[in-house]
Amino acid sequence: MGRFLDLTLAGLTSGAVYAAVALALVLIWRSTRIVNFAQGGMLMITTFLAYTVVSHGGSYWLALLVAVVSGLVLGALVERLLVRPVEKRPPLDAVVVTFGLLVLLQGLAGMLFGGTPRSYPPAFGIAGFRLAGHQLLFSPNDLWVVLVVLGGMAVLAVVFRRTSLGLRMRSAAFAPEVARLLGVRVGPMLTLGWALAAVVGAVAGVLIAPSTFVSPTGFDAVLVFGFTAAVIGGLDSPPGAVAGGLILGVVLSYVAGYLGSDIVTFGALVVLIVVLMVRPSGLFGAATGRRV
């Protein structure tokens, strides 16, 4: 029973990490209808900037602020300089641009920061809580990660469903021509969507960093699992991204604990296939019917 509880808590922690990345992917998809495969590279750059602050004596919170501000600027620049020139072309063009940006950012990080993996300090203690004499594999820092992700999901859900800003961003993404006729400034809305997504990604990078090493390619696996979580939950749903991340994290923790870590990636594939067979739009995605 103790092993099952430990695996569950460890899965919730890793699932929150996947959910944080999934939230950033969902935000860009909802606001611009583009899957940003450069998200891992963007959060890697902002995390390196945060690490620079910490390594020079700055506090964790100052580093987090630097990551958020740099993410806001980076996201806006990427949309204005790279994505907007191809927004009227076939959707595949934007996907290719994001892949190219990922390679560029990884190469740039290698030149500026080197390829040596760096350790990142956690916000809180990493010693697990004790319950009935048993030390859990769930620490105050893990609790911080879970609470931040849940809070981010709640904020995004409110913004998109309950505010005029969210309505304008959604209309700019789904029907830009109609949105322009209704007075919505589509360009700034798209830029804002990318900037907000980059902020979420920057926070995700800082949350992830203590559990992995910061390096130019250190976030690639997290991006893959984060994208899987977003698809499982539904690319249109912030709550779905969180649910997908937590489900994926717990399942993969069980797979690693009971079957072996060598088949974790295969386990993620099985979960993805099962969910898409039952509900192709994702667990929380809006179901669509086929037009005859």
TrEMBL record:
<comment type="similarity">
    <text>Belongs to the binding-protein-dependent transport system permease family. LivHM subfamily.</text>
</comment>
<feature type="transmembrane region" description="Helical">
    <location>
        <begin position="60"/>
        <end position="82"/>
    </location>
</feature>
<keyword id="KW-0029">Amino-acid transport</keyword>
<dbReference type="GO" id="GO:0006865">
    <property type="term" value="P:amino acid transport"/>
</dbReference>
<dbReference type="InterPro" id="IPR052157">
    <property type="entry name" value="BCAA_transport_permease"/>
</dbReference>
<feature type="transmembrane region" description="Helical">
    <location>
        <begin position="143"/>
        <end position="160"/>
    </location>
</feature>
<keyword id="KW-0812">Transmembrane</keyword>
<keyword id="KW-1003">Cell membrane</keyword>
<dbReference type="Pfam" id="PF02653">
    <property type="entry name" value="BPD_transp_2"/>
</dbReference>
<keyword id="KW-0472">Membrane</keyword>
<protein>
    <submittedName>
        <fullName>Branched-chain amino acid ABC transporter permease</fullName>
    </submittedName>
</protein>
<feature type="transmembrane region" description="Helical">
    <location>
        <begin position="190"/>
        <end position="211"/>
    </location>
</feature>
<keyword id="KW-1133">Transmembrane helix</keyword>
<dbReference type="GO" id="GO:0005886">
    <property type="term" value="C:plasma membrane"/>
</dbReference>
<feature type="transmembrane region" description="Helical">
    <location>
        <begin position="217"/>
        <end position="235"/>
    </location>
</feature>
<feature type="transmembrane region" description="Helical">
    <location>
        <begin position="6"/>
        <end position="27"/>
    </location>
</feature>
<feature type="transmembrane region" description="Helical">
    <location>
        <begin position="266"/>
        <end position="287"/>
    </location>
</feature>
<feature type="transmembrane region" description="Helical">
    <location>
        <begin position="34"/>
        <end position="54"/>
    </location>
</feature>
<dbReference type="GO" id="GO:0022857">
    <property type="term" value="F:transmembrane transporter activity"/>
</dbReference>
<dbReference type="InterPro" id="IPR001851">
    <property type="entry name" value="ABC_transp_permease"/>
</dbReference>
<keyword id="KW-0813">Transport</keyword>
<feature type="transmembrane region" description="Helical">
    <location>
        <begin position="242"/>
        <end position="260"/>
    </location>
</feature>
<feature type="transmembrane region" description="Helical">
    <location>
        <begin position="94"/>
        <end position="114"/>
    </location>
</feature>
